[in-house]
Amino acid sequence: MIKLEMESEFSPPEGENGYSKRQILNIKETILSELTDLLDHSGKVSNKKKLSSDLFNREKKATTAIGRQIAIPHVRTMQAKEFILAVGRHADGYEFDAPDGKPVRLFFCMAAPPYDDNLYLKVFRSLAERINYPGFVENLIEASDPHLVIRAFKELE
User: Fold this and answer.
1) Which of 14, 15, 32, 42 is the most exposed place for a label (fewest CB within 10 A)?
2) Is the pLDDT of residue 27 over 60?
3) Please, which pLDDT band fits residue 157 given cuts at 50, 70 and 90?
4) Which residues, 6+ apart, have CB-to-CB distance to 91 below 8 Å?
5) How far apart are CA 73 and CA 52, in angstroms?
6) Interhelix angle for 48-61 vs 21-40, to 10°?
7) CB atoms within 10 A of CB 129
8) β-strands 70-71, 65-67: how paired?
9) Nearest-5° angle of CA 46, CA 88, CA 12?
10) How confident is the model at residue 15 (pLDDT cuts 50, 70, 90)?
């Protein structure tokens, strides 16, 4: 499932210090809910509300933003009937507590049942490798339709 323009909007931070930790958590919860909606379209989610909660609880432990305008929210949960992946993008990006301080524009959201380690880890590893290929992230950011996102992945196979 691919969404080229995520819909969540947030007010700019007040003051010079940026968003508070509470505001960032609220932003994350809203974005993860939107990504959960996208995952739910796959028909492979048992309980959308619980999946969203599982993703958010995972995010509260440590940010899934990795820098370079990318976050990989992920969770192993019984709310996923099998491995599912959603790609979300936002032109300006969202504050997501990234280590480089930049807004996150690309979200790769993954969920899998706890017993499905092989595929989950294989996809996670493959995604981590692809992110480092020259031009890959830029192609995803500039893609004008979902087929171009899929093509960017297939070109690296």
Assistant:
1) 15
2) yes
3) low
4) 5, 105
5) 11
6) 140
7) 11
8) antiparallel
9) 115
10) low
What SS3 string covers 88-101? EEEEEEECCCCCCC
Q: Give the 3-state secondary structure of 10-74.
A: CCCCCCCCCCCHHHHHHHHHHHHHHHHHHHHCCCCECCHHHHHHHHHHHHHHCCCEEECCEECCE
Q: Is the pLDDT of residue 1 over 70?
A: no
Instruction: Please say if the pLDDT value at position 103 is more than 80.
Output: yes
CATH number of the structural domain spanning residue 62: 3.40.930.10
Q: Is the model's pLDDT at 82 over the cut of 60?
A: yes
Q: Which domain holds residue 75?
A: 2-154
Q: How far apart are the first and last CA of the chain?
A: 19
**Quick one: how far is CA 4 from the chain centroid?**
12
Q: How confident is the model at residue 149 (pLDDT cuts 50, 70, 90)?
A: confident
Number of domains present in the structure of the chain? 1
